[in-house]
Amino acid sequence: MAVFEMPDFHAPFLVECNPHLAMASRAMWEWIDTHDLATTEKARDRMRRTGADLSGAYVWPRAGLDMLTNGLRWLALTFRIDDQIDEDDVAERLEARVAAVDELCGVLHGLTASGRSPVARALATLWQETSQGRPVDWQNAFVRNFEAFLRSYATEAALSAQGHVPRLDDYLRWRMYSVGMPWLWDLDELRLPVFLPNSVRTCAPMVNLRRAGSLHVALVNDVFSVHRETIVGYQYNAVTIIRDAQQCSLQEAVDQVAALVTSQVHTVVEAGRELREDLDRQAVPPIARTATLDYAANITANLSGQLVWHSSVERYAVDDIQPTGRSGNYPDDLLPGE
After folding, report:
1. Is the CB of residue 236 less than 8 Å from the CB of residue 171?
2. What is the domain range of residue 185?
3. Which residue in 185, 315, 215 sits closest to 9, CA to CA?
4. Which H or E run contains 46?
5. CATH number, position 217
6. Of 318, 313, 256, which is closest to residue 2 (Cα–Cα)?
7. Cα(41)–Cα(71) distance, rounded to whole angstroms?
8. What sign for the dihedral angle of Cα 203, 71, 146, 153?
9. 338 residues of the chain, pLDDT tens digit each
10. Is residue 177 in some structural domain?
């Protein structure tokens, strides 16, 4: 049993929560029902305990109702993907995972979903609604980050099939994408008065800000989820990677992860300062500059907000896990049968 003292994570930023949460939550559940994403009471309970709606209220605290509602649909869909692949596929079926991921990625590139999985069908509808009329640069950035999120599931299954445990540095290279924050922050551009210039979206300070912010959330998540993930046999977690590599105690590994979280805060603060200098260097027009700084401030608020979310929900409780180590909260309709 994973027993340890929860560290006091460093996140010295104001917490912001979207005031439209209640209305957007109701709309999210209507969408879940429309697309048959939680057709059993067990599935609905898992989604309620996950708190996808509360998470989104901290991800997009400054969004209007329509944009928040759209974001909550994305979160509900991806939490379902995560549960079905990471927890329910205890055999880590590589070919099945690759096939499922290929279909979902294909949907983002305009291919037709096979129709077997409500997840793929829902993704097709959601991406069509979200991408319509958006700049190509923004669409490409979103697809790139969402694909990286999806591909991480196949990466982990491939490593498991090889019996390979990654070094921490290698793990963090895909963990920043598997946590999902890059594409969630791409969606945040939809609320701005203008989309970010591509030169701003890809400049070094912005890249560093987003990477450090993503890793902050990812590492916090690894600590909160390590107990549950240990029970279901999921091995890609910074805490267990450090513990096994160093042959240290669980508490010592948790404390090292907390120190890594603090280092991400320092990078976020420094990247924010450098971003302002880069905007000056690029002579970014005032409206785009204001939008960029608003966008960057939203990222920093997320670090405190996601810490509150992790502390508030029952997603990482273990009472729903079966003796076999499988949660089985959702119908087996994402990974193709073998």
Report:
1. yes
2. 166-317
3. 215
4. helix 41-50
5. 1.10.600.10
6. 318
7. 24
8. positive
9. 568 999 999 999 999 999 999 999 999 999 999 999 999 999 999 999 999 999 999 999 999 999 999 999 999 999 999 988 876 655 567 888 888 899 999 999 998 877 678 999 999 999 999 999 999 999 999 999 999 999 999 898 889 888 888 999 999 999 999 999 999 999 999 999 999 999 999 999 999 999 999 999 999 999 999 999 998 888 899 999 999 999 999 999 999 999 999 999 999 999 999 999 999 999 999 999 999 999 999 999 999 999 999 999 999 999 888 766 566 677 666 665 54
10. yes
In a domain, 63, yes or no: no
Torsion sign (Cα): 11, 13, 18, 22: positive
Q: Which amino acid is at 28?
A: M
Query: How far is 158 from 145, CA to CA, in rounded Å?
Result: 20
How far apart CA 69 and CA 79 sit, in angstroms, is: 15
> Which structure tokens are listed for 284?
């970014």
CA dist 71 → 96, 141, 192 (Å): 28, 16, 14
- Residue 37 counted as domain residue: no
Tokens 């690894």 sit on residue: 222
Residue type, 204: A
- Whole-model pTM? 0.95
Q: How many domains does the chain have?
A: 1
Assess if residue 258 is contained within a domain: yes
Alpha carbons 219 and 306: distance in angstroms, whole number: 11
Q: Which of 305, 303, 108 is nearest to 210 (CA)?
A: 303
